[in-house]
Design a protein that fits this description.
Length: about 280
């Protein structure tokens, strides 16, 4: 029987850390106390959320190879609702180059060494042996999923896996062109604010970003407009005072991309919000 939990157990038996995904490719918490993020953790963050669990939880940090955890009572309700299985590439010593469209695939074929390839809904996953830092939008239509990230399991793919090339590692060393409008805003706060930023309380600012992530994550329809409206709200509150950092913007983009938004749309939505606010 090819159910999500059976797929997960098979992968775990081969040393691949796995976790269940609910509708919309969104992870669960990894214990009953964290169900529906009751503990305050956020499923699309790149680090575990605040939690009283005995182990880290949420998103990539929930991934495990322990069959007792996978089949235990805390995870059983999640598997009943699961729509897919995800895995933590970095935890398995792997890196996934996520190619989101035909142009990205053409670029990869012209630039990167061939390796194991897995078809996706809109493109391909190219899987290399070796781990590295994850990053979104390293170039148009290209994300890197490895450490502190998760990827949806779409099958074993075809081809022979090869070692992670320097050409992939080099992608995170340069500033992604699609994010430059964002970086321009957050690196020049004096242009908009000046003086002490009233939002430089980490708890206040983090709560605002967390609420924005949650709004995007919980969208069940009109995702495009929800992403734009959320970006607009964040910039209305924080765009002129200089408290936003690359990490904050990256969290918002990651939440949107986890809902299926492409890097190009994220950048367009952010730029349109800047324009509307005169920033």
């Amino acid at each position: 029987m090819n159910t999500p939990v059976h797929t997960a157990l098979d992968l775990a038996g081969r040393g691949v850390p796995v976790l269940p995904l609910r509708a919309g490719k969104v992870p669960f918490g990894n214990c009953r106390a964290c169900r529906d993020n009751a503990c305050g953790g956020r499923p699309n963050m790149k680090t575990p959320g605040p939690c009283d669990c005995p182990r880290p939880c949420h998103a990539w940090a929930a991934a495990t190879t322990d069959p007792a955890t996978l089949t235990g009572p805390a995870w059983a309700p999640m598997w009943e609702q699961a729509h897919a299985v995800a895995y933590h590439p970095g935890g398995a010593g792997l890196t996934v180059v996520d190619l989101d469209n035909a142009d990205a695939i053409i670029w990869a074929r012209q630039t990167l060494p061939t390796t194991r390839t897995v078809p996706t809904t809109r493109g391909e996953h190219w899987i290399y042996r070796g781990s590295m830092q994850s990053a979104n939008a390293v170039r148009p239509g290209v994300d890197i999923k490895s450490t502190m990230s998760y990827a949806r399991w779409l099958g074993p793919g075809t081809g022979t896996m090869t070692d992670l090339p320097d050409a992939v590692r080099a992608l995170i060393a340069k500033e992604p062109a699609t994010v430059r409008p964002v970086l321009h805003v957050i690196t020049a706060p004096a242009r908009f604010g000046g003086g002490e930023c009233r939002h430089r309380s980490p708890a206040y600012l983090d709560r605002g970003i967390a609420m924005a992530e949650e709004r995007i994550t919980q969208a069940t329809s009109a995702v495009h407009s929800t992403v734009y409206g959320t970006f607009l709200a964040v910039l209305s509150a924080h765009g002129r005072c200089g408290c936003l950092t690359d990490a904050h913007v990256g969290r918002l983009f990651a939440a949107a991309q986890a809902k299926g938004e492409g890097a190009r749309h994220c950048n367009d939505a952010w730029t349109n919000a800047l324009t509307r606010l005169g920033l």
